[in-house]
């Protein structure tokens, strides 16, 4: 919407923590999505005044400067594809949370944020992101050579949370050899981990912590294509999902590599990278009780082990009758949320309309119903994972994540 960048003041721009101006821009983005869902096009007013979040009373209000038209056809999407792409991405989250990620990523420029989210939807459809949820690890491995190898060797896994409650993804870089798997298998595994991570991010937390363990790294482990793909994921497809990235114990040989990689990074992503040179430094970010004891300062006796697919664990996915019933229940609540959101968008402009506060309370209640309905449906549309089948499952039936530490 705005032609110039608008920063997000600390502690704002999140569900339940919106400035009045941010709330209006969120409404604007919902309104445009509804226009696109209804007709395939959306027309928006643009403004040309920046710096108005938290500005002084003497600062002029934003001035309308014209209109911008967004067409689904220009993106390569259809009206029929839009709503499923939107709601398959929302999952059990508060629907506003997804839109706010793209608004923050595009400095509250609604048109840019809308184009960004639509391109992400197109990518999810073209790359069939849903298959990493709907297919078992065995099925994915049969299609993508080397997919399961990533899990068996423990190249990357999720375990525990950091001091800010963010789930931690550990990546053991020394285990990576580009020739061991097809590039597409590595990409699919990366998306698999990201989609698992999304389930483990528990409100009000919105981001994850990544640890790139560079112990034993050599140039034989370097994979520039994968780095480019990972950067693109965080910048374009999963914006505002990275809380902090630790590059741990990078050897001297890595610094030549870093000079090549650093220019590829968006400044926002680059600002979240921290280099740690000792295990003790890691405990500044991850509590020692949550840090695996393979690190000198860690007290958690966790040792990664891959547990293979269990026969019959996905039988509920074959129960199409129950799946369709739960899907219709979830969709019915979805339609209620959309109707409330349309009312919320226009309530201040319609004489005699219900108050914004009343509608917001109802929207909040509906989002809780949506979450419950989604996780009832989840085992009928999502294959079970390592994080469901372990001795102490992380992912619970109600969508919560419970970590077990061995101290």
Gap from first CA to last CA: 51 Å
Strand content: 5-15%
> What gyration radius follows from the Cα positions, in whole Å?
22 Å
The CATH architecture of the largest domain can be given as 3-Layer(aba) Sandwich
Number of strands: 7
Structural class estimated from helices and strands? alpha/beta
Fold-level CATH name of the largest domain: Phosphatidylinositol Transfer Protein Sec14p
Outline:
globular
Description:
With 407 residues, the protein is α/β, with parallel strands linked by helices. The longest helix has 27 residues, at 320-346. Residues 48-64 have low confidence and may be disordered. It contains 16 helices and 7 strands. The chain is globular and about 65 Å long. A 5-stranded mixed β-sheet has the order 3-4-5-6-7. Strands 1-2 form a two-stranded antiparallel sheet. The chain has 3 domains: 20-126, no CATH class; 146-282, 3-Layer(aba) Sandwich (Phosphatidylinositol Transfer Protein Sec14p); 319-389.
Topology:
Layout: H1 20-39, E1 41-47, E2 64-71, H2 72-75, H3 79-90, H4 95-105, H5 110-126, H6 131-134, H7 137-143, H8 147-153, E3 156-161, E4 167-172, H9 183-200, E5 208-213, H10 224-237, E6 242-248, H11 254-261, H12 267-270, E7 273-276, H13 279-282, H14 320-346, H15 356-381, H16 386-389
Helix pairs in contact: 1-3, 1-4, 1-5, 1-14, 3-5, 4-5, 9-10, 14-15
Give a short summary of the structure.
It is built from 16 helices and 7 strands. By secondary structure, it is an alpha/beta fold.
Question: What attributes characterize this protein structure?
Answer:
407 residues, alpha/beta, Phosphatidylinositol Transfer Protein Sec14p, 3 domains, two-stranded antiparallel sheet, 46% helix, 11% strand, globular, CRAL-TRIO domain-containing protein, CRAL-TRIO_dom, CRAL-TRIO_dom_sf
């Amino acid at each position: 919407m705005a032609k110039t960048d608008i920063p997000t003041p600390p502690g704002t721009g999140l569900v339940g923590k919106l400035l009045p101006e941010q709330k209006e821009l969120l409404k604007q983005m919902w309104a445009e999505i509804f226009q696109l869902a209804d007709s395939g096009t959306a027309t928006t007013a643009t403004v040309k005044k920046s710096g108005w979040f938290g500005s002084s009373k003497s600062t002029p209000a934003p001035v309308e400067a014209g209109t911008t038209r967004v067409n689904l056809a220009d993106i390569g999407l259809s009206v029929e594809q839009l709503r499923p792409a939107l709601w398959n991405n929302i999952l059990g989250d508060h629907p506003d949370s997804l839109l706010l990620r793209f608004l923050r990523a595009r400095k509250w420029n609604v048109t840019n944020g809308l184009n960004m989210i639509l391109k992400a939807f197109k990518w999810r459809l073209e790359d069939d992101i849903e298959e990493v949820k709907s297919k078992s690890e065995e099925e994915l491995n049969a299609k993508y050579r080397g997919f399961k190898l990533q899990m068996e060797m423990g190249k990357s896994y999720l375990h525990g949370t950091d001091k800010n409650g963010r789930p931690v993804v550990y990546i053991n870089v020394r285990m990576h050899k580009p020739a061991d798997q097809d590039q597409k298998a590595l990409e699919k595994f990366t998306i698999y981990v990201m989609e698992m991570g999304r389930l483990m991010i528990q409100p009000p937390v919105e981001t994850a912590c990544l640890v790139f363990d560079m112990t034993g790294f050599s140039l034989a482990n370097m994979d520039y294509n994968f780095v480019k793909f990972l950067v693109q994921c965080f910048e374009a497809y999963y914006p505002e999902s990275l809380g902090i990235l630790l590059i741990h114990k990078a050897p001297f040989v890595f610094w030549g590599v870093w000079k090549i990689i650093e220019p590829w990074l968006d400044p926002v992503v680059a600002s979240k990278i921290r280099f740690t040179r000792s295990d003790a430094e890691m405990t500044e970010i991850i509590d020692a009780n949550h840090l695996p004891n393979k690190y000198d300062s860690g007290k958690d006796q966790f040792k990664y082990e891959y547990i293979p697919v269990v026969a019959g664990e996905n039988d509920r996915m074959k129960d199409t009758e129950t799946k369709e019933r739960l899907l219709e229940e979830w969709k019915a609540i979805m339609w209620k949320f959309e109707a409330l959101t349309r009312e919320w968008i226009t309530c201040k402009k319609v004489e005699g309309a219900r108050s914004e506060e009343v509608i917001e309370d109802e929207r909040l209640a509906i989002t809780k119903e949506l979450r419950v309905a989604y996780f009832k449906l989840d085992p009928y549309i999502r294959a079970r994972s390592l994080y469901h089948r372990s001795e102490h499952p992380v992912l619970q039936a109600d969508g919560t994540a419970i970590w077990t530490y061995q101290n």
